[in-house]
């Protein structure tokens, strides 16, 4: 029986030794797995950091685009408010021209003079209303020719004026605030 017990003890010892060897193999395998997992987590961290940086960059660009859009919208809205009367002014300029032609007619009788005075009053009211909106006549006679404000339709020789000077206005020009609505049609000296 002692032999059997001795054999059992040896078997237990052998089994324990095998178990230790097996545990060592498992421990080294676990260490390899931990190292591989650590490398994977480092790569994942780097990948996540790169993705985060990319997201931050896109967010900053989107914010900048939105700020630019908001500024452009505000500027366009301000310009629209500033020049809101442009279409109306353009349609009224021929009316002003016709008033000026009518007022240039010489009248001889009293009835025509009273009609002319009424026309002058309406003309002044119209001009005052346009001035309140920021409409101004473009000064031209005696000025140096400027293609932004003048449209030359004739060029004449003149000894009394310097070259490239506006001699006569054939049709008045107008501007709304700082924008030219209609350039003045002028005669320019050579």
UniProtKB/TrEMBL annotation:
SUPFAM superfamilies: Coiled-coil domain of nucleotide exchange factor GrpE, Head domain of nucleotide exchange factor GrpE. Coiled coil: none annotated. InterPro entries: GrpE, GrpE_CC, GrpE_head. Keywords: Chaperone, Cytoplasm, Stress response. Residues 1-47 are annotated as: Disordered. One of its GO terms (cellular component) is cytoplasm. Pfam families: GrpE. It is found in: Cytoplasm. Signal peptide: none annotated. Residues 33-43 have a biased composition (Acidic residues). Gene3D superfamilies: 3.90.20.20, Head domain of nucleotide exchange factor GrpE (2.30.22.10). GO terms for biological process: protein folding. The keyword Transit peptide does not apply. Belongs to the GrpE family. Homodimer. This is Protein GrpE. The gene is grpE.
């Amino acid at each position: 029986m002692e032999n059997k017990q001795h054999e059992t003890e040896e078997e237990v010892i052998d089994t324990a030794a095998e178990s230790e060897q097996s545990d060592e193999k498992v421990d080294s395998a676990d260490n390899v797995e931990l190292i591989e997992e650590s490398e994977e987590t480092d790569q994942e961290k780097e990948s996540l950091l790169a993705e985060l940086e990319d997201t931050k960059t896109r967010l900053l660009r989107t914010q900048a685009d939105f700020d630019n859009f908001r500024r452009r919208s505000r500027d366009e809205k301000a310009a629209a408010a500033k020049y809101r009367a442009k279409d109306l002014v353009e349609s009224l300029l021929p009316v002003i021209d016709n008033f000026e032609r009518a007022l240039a007619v010489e009248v001889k009788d009293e009835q025509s003079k009273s009609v002319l005075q009424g026309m002058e009053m309406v003309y002044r009211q119209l001009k005052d209303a346009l001035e309140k909106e920021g409409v101004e006549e473009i000064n031209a006679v005696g000025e140096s020719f400027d293609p932004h404000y003048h449209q030359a339709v004739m060029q004449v020789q003149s000894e009394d004026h310097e070259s490239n000077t506006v001699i006569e206005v054939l049709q008045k020009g107008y501007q709304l605030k700082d924008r030219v609505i209609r350039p003045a049609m002028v005669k320019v000296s050579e």
